[in-house]
Design a protein that fits this description.
Shape: flat
Distance between the termini: 93 Å
Largest sheet: 8 strands, mixed
Number of strands: 8
Number of helices: 2
Helix content: 25-40%
Structural class: alpha+beta
């Protein structure tokens, strides 16, 4: 059977040919992304901590399921994947209680020895880590605490009085 021009083909074939051509054009125009082609990025949270404090470690873009973070502020830490694709590696570390204040380098290494590396800074600040309520109660005077308690008790009493009054009227 001789080949027929596209215009002479039935409408179904013309539509199918147009869809195929459009798909090829879109596929050619779509940029190809290579997974983990860029260097990994890392972070330490918080970026400033007191001796004895804990930090969270995170590195993205490794493309491996293993990694380490090391610093003279806390030693070596093994990082574990945050998901099945291993796009994020996580860990935590406790800064040595006798660490001197100053800037420390944290080196993240993807995979085994010789893997991709990225470094970030960690600031160790002088002083002890604050625990408990984060200092939110320490800044309040006893008078402020008493005033707040009185206002709360007054609001509770007024609410009960209104509810009892309303129930008598109905």
């Amino acid at each position: 059977m001789p080949a027929t021009p596209l215009a002479a083909q039935p409408p179904n074939r013309r539509l199918l040919a147009r869809v195929a051509a459009a798909t090829l054009v879109l596929a050619a125009a779509t940029p190809v992304t290579v997974a983990h082609a860029a260097s990994p990025s890392a972070g330490v949270s918080p970026t400033a901590v007191a001796p004895g404090g804990r930090v969270s470690l995170n590195v993205t873009g490794c493309g491996t399921k293993t990694g380490t973070a090391s610093s003279s502020a806390f030693g070596d830490v093994r990082l574990t994947p945050g998901n099945l694709e291993a796009t994020n590696l996580f860990g935590s570390a406790t800064v040595f209680s006798n660490a001197n204040s100053g800037a420390y380098t944290v080196t993240f290494e993807c995979g085994g020895a010789g893997g991709q590396r990225v470094t970030v800074a960690l600031q160790v600040a002088s002083g002890a880590a604050r625990g408990g309520l984060g200092g939110s109660v320490g800044a309040m005077s006893p008078g402020q605490i008493a005033l707040g308690g009185t206002l709360a008790a007054g609001a509770l009493g007024a609410g009960i009085w209104i509810l009892r009054r309303r129930s008598r009227l109905t």
